[in-house]
Specification:
heterodimer, A: mainly alpha, two-stranded antiparallel sheet, 15 helices, B: mainly beta, eight-stranded antiparallel beta sheet, five-stranded mixed beta sheet, 38 strands, 13% helix, globular
């Protein structure tokens, strides 16, 4: 039973980004390289490419729903349908209320749906209330924990990390519920590849995986644990979700390619430090710590550049109220 | 309201939601702990408040048994505590038919001796295992004892015994309560099989009890002498590389034949507990298997000719967990049997939760719903053996649960390493050499036990520490029996690497009870499989006489019903294993009724 790390639903992050876009043309205004790349003429080409682009707000919900259905119908990964629906319902309700309150308009609900479904998959509890609370905290973090009109934490990473830290007696994370076999990983790889290839973010995944493997060797040397045991989490299906989707979240990763690789490496380093301290939910917490710090540094640098004489493009703010 | 003030208000709400419930729960927990310490101090009120109190009378009863663990290959030394983690078992039996309950406990180390504690009728017990030939069953090279099941296999009136092992299991015939004789030539038992659970049932209702063995490790594994280290489960929740199952049909004269394939049982999951009971009301015993590293299985008996696995259809075969117990009880006095299956819950790591499979099907459909959370019996640590029984004689079955996997050095934990390896690919997890060394660390050790009192309205309250259950051993088997013939259920607990414990039960004097001892004629003589319904005060309670129940345990064969303050029973109906129905009107309460099956 492991308790391995979790993962954020991949697509989640993507969706969060897409949520902010009001239209394809909005997308093209973005100075954020990755997002902008989807608004090129190329992306408007063939229908299937359109289907797989950020212009399709339903892509992420469809993919994450596919993962959920695959997991549930084959392995029964959910604690129960009821709990997952509760999380989704709480997230959507929260988004509607806060969207109205903070922006005066009804936000697109794809992002909330994904946050809710992510919570429903990622946390495990015999009780109902953690699902509602986690979904609510996730959504609220997006509206509250902002700096210069950008939210810093991936919403469900924040919610899940908070629940694991504050309510260990009631909440655990999804871990072994997808078994220990190859084919579930193939499912995630296929679905993950679709979105990651469109996002051109394989470098993040690759950096993290290589870092994790190398640092597993370091941990093994330090602790005397067999190398395969140290590397073991990476071979489980849940880690594939983490690698493909959570650490690649466009909204909560820095914009430069080099910076993204550095952040992925730092996530692996902090995770190693946490693992050396035997912190079971190390990946969640590593991303929780490194991601916002990196974002804050980037925003600060951007502000400094904005203050300089040369004009600099400003990233449009995704969430309502921006 | 301005945007700024909206944001401020939202931030306050956010912080409140983030920290408020956590603070509230911490304060509630502190208050609960404080209240418990006050309650414990007020010991005199316990009988009034809960209706009973348990006292650890292990030493006073003359019990000094200490379980010794199986020996395993040096290649597994780094994870020895979690591999050699089973074998402490206890089964209650009146082997000499003197009307007083005796019990048999197993040890597991090579050369270690099992004990048969004979009831001396004065609150004490004397070990007579060596005298009757039941002590020396851990001979080097023969494997390690994992438990025993008792019933009358040859219908001579005396309970025989199946001692199952990770190794060479044995059937032993009871010679008039004086001695036991091994049945080797015709028993049909495999030369080597790593049996994790077993029971006796008359699956074809021919009046002879049959043998069911459920493997845990694969048959080819000999833990004392490994050929390789690729012996671990291939998955933590989806493993099918465990031991085979074996159904041996009793042909009489101590001859048994293997009918496993013939009846359609082909599971190779890692079974740790089995209970045979009639779940669909057709008077044929079905089999519920609690499997480690996977889903549970329910084999429906189709007229004694075949078994059909219906776990998914019945709702129990979806969520894979770490099944370690199988006990049945009528928890709401509705005349229907629920199944209690234990799993693992470790704060902050893994919260599988135990299962209370409650029958929820309408009409003839066999459906179960997990109501453990609703009823408050879900979280029990690394749970092992559990038994239903009316401990305070209030008319509702309560639930006693023991737990704790490996108690290592205090303050240490192996959980991080455990979680790391078990999340990996099957090629990694299944090879023991990849597992991190335990180095004396605990894995859900030193745990508080649970004793849940049933309020009869769908909620259970944990009173273990309040009524005297305060041990922290690594509990395995629990058995309930009226050891002093005073109408109360006492508790026996077998602990891994630890002492056998006896908790003597004292119940408030205004509580009444009624007991039944059944003897079959057309049915098997032990009446295994009989169902007894007691009707009183506008309600009924159903109990089924099973051989093995719980984990590596067997309760007394006498069926015990608490009646609360009621002094009258309307009627009792008995459905004998043969299918014969019998009704008794207005039986006397506070009495053990000895009933023979009508011809």
């Amino acid at each position: 039973m492991s308790t391995p790390p979790s993962t954020e639903i991949p697509v989640t992050d993507v969706v969060v980004a897409s949520e902010d876009l009001k239209s394809p043309s909005d997308c093209c205004k973005s100075s954020q390289a990755d997002v902008g790349s989807y608004c090129t003429a190329e992306s408007r080409g063939s229908n299937w490419k359109r289907l797989l682009s950020f212009e399709n707000r339903y892509l992420a919900p469809i993919l994450i729903s596919s993962i959920l259905l695959t997991g549930q119908l084959t392995f029964g990964i959910l604690e129960s349908w009821t709990r997952t629906f509760l999380a989704i319902g709480a997230a959507i309700a929260c988004e509607i209320v806060l969207g109205r309150l903070m922006t005066g308009r009804l936000p697109h609900l794809a992002s909330a749906y994904i946050s809710g479904i992510s919570v429903g998959i990622l946390i495990r509890s015999p009780f109902f209330w953690p699902y509602a609370l986690c979904a609510t905290l996730s959504l609220m973090s997006k509206y509250v924990l902002r700096w210069h009109n950008r939210h810093l934490w991936n919403p469900s990473n924040f919610g899940v990390s908070a629940m694991l830290f504050l309510y260990p007696a009631a909440v655990a994370s999804l871990s072994i519920q997808w078994g220990n076999f190859l084919w579930p990983m193939l499912v995630v790889w296929c679905l993950g590849s679709i979105i990651i290839s469109r996002l051109k973010r394989f470098h993040i995944c690759l950096t993290y995986v290589l870092s994790f493997v190398a640092l597993s060797g370091v941990r093994s040397l330090i602790t005397g644990t067999p190398f395969l045991a140290s590397m073991s989490p990476l071979t489980g299906p849940m880690y594939q979700l983490f690698v493909f989707f959570m650490i690649t979240d466009p909204k909560t990763t820095v914009s430069s390619k080099r910076g993204q690789c550095l952040v992925a490496f730092l996530v692996a380093v902090v995770e190693m430090l946490l693992r050396l301290s035997q912190v079971i939910h190390a990946p969640y917490y590593a991303l929780f710590l490194v991601g916002p710090a990196a974002m804050a540094i980037e925003i600060a640098l951007q502000q400094r550049r904005n203050a300089s004489p040369e004009p600099v493009a400003v990233v449009p703010s995704p969430v309502a109220g921006d | 309201m301005t945007m700024r003030s909206s944001r401020a208000a939202l931030s306050v709400v956010f912080l409140g939601l983030l920290a408020g419930p956590a603070i509230y729960l911490r304060l509630s927990e502190a208050e609960s702990t404080r209240t418990r310490s006050i309650d414990t101090a007020g010991h005199k009120d316990l009988l009034d408040r809960y209706g009973f109190v348990l006292n650890d009378e292990t030493t006073a009863a003359g019990l000094d048994f200490l379980h010794q663990v199986p020996r395993i290959d040096q290649q597994l030394e780094h994870i020895e505590p979690q591999v050699a983690a089973m074998g402490a078992a206890v089964s209650v039996v009146d082997f000499d038919r003197d009307g007083w309950q005796d019990f048999y406990v197993t040890s597991s180390a090579p050369g270690s001796r099992n004990r048969l504690y004979q009831n001396q009728h004065d609150g004490t017990f004397v070990d007579v295992a060596a005298e009757v030939g039941l002590a020396d069953l851990n001979q080097p090279g023969s494997g390690a004892c994992m438990g025993s099941v008792w019933a009358d296999l040859d219908n001579d009136g005396f309970e025989d015994v199946l001692v199952y092992k990770w190794g060479r299991s044995q059937l032993l015939r009871n010679n008039g309560g004086k001695s036991f004789e091994a049945v080797n030539q015709t028993s049909g038992l495999p030369d080597w099989s790593n049996v994790g659970a077993a029971t006796l049932l008359d699956f074809d209702r021919d009046g002879l009890l049959d043998v069911f063995l459920a493997g845990y490790w694969p048959d080819e594994v000999k833990l004392e002498q490994l050929e390789h280290t690729r012996i671990m489960p291939e998955s933590f929740e989806y493993a099918k590389n465990g031991g085979r199952k074996l159904l041996l049909r009793n042909r009489g004269d101590w001859r048994f034949e293997d009918v496993t394939q013939q009846v359609g049982i082909n599971s190779t999951r890692w079974t740790l507990a089995v209970v045979a009971a009639d779940f669909n009301g057709d008077a044929f015993p079905d089999l519920f298997l609690a499997n480690d590293y996977g889903v549970s299985e329910l084999f429906l008996n189709e007229g004694g000719a075949a078994f059909r696995e219906v776990g998914k259809d019945a709702g129990i075969g979806y969520a894979p967990k770490s099944g370690m117990n199988a006990a049945v009880g009528d928890v709401l006095n509705q005349g229907r049997l629920a199944i209690y299956e234990t799993n693992i819950s470790e704060e902050g790591v893994l919260i599988q939760g135990n299962n209370l499979w409650f029958p929820s099907g309408k009409d003839d459909s066999l459906k179960f719903e997990n109501l453990a959370s609703v009823m408050g019996v879900e979280i029990g640590g690394w749970s092992f053996g559990a038994q239903f029984g009316d401990l305070n004689n209030d008319g509702f079955v309560d639930l006693y649960l023991t737990n704790g996997y490996v108690s290592g050095d205090p303050g240490t934990s192996y959980w991080y390493d455990f979680s790391e390896i078990t999340g990996g690919h099957s090629k990694i997890i299944s090879d023991a050499k990849n597992w991190p060394p335990m180095k004396g660390r605990s894995l859900s050790g030193h745990q508080q036990k649970h004793l849940w009192l049933n309020d009869g309205a769908g909620r259970f309250q944990d009173v273990a520490s309040l009524v005297g259950v305060d041990d922290r051993y690594d509990g395995r088997a629990v058995a309930l029996a009226d050891l002093d013939n005073n109408g109360t259920l006492d508790v026996l607990v077998a602990n891994q690497r630890g002492p056998l414990l006896l908790y003597r039960n004292r119940v408030a004097t205004n509580r009444h009870w009624i007991d039944f001892e059944l003897e079959g004629s057309n049915s098997n003589r032990s009446a295994i499989g009989a169902q007894v319904r007691v009707w009183w005060n506008g309600q009924q309670q159903l109990q089924e006489l099973a051989a093995a129940t719980g984990y590596a345990a067997q309760n007394q064969r006498r069926l015990h019903f608490g009646l609360g303050d009621q002094t009258e029973v309307d009627r009792v109906t008995i459905r004998w294993p043969s299918g014969t129905e019998q009704t008794i009107e207005h039986p006397t309460v506070d009495t053990v009724h000895k009933l023979e099956e009508p011809q």
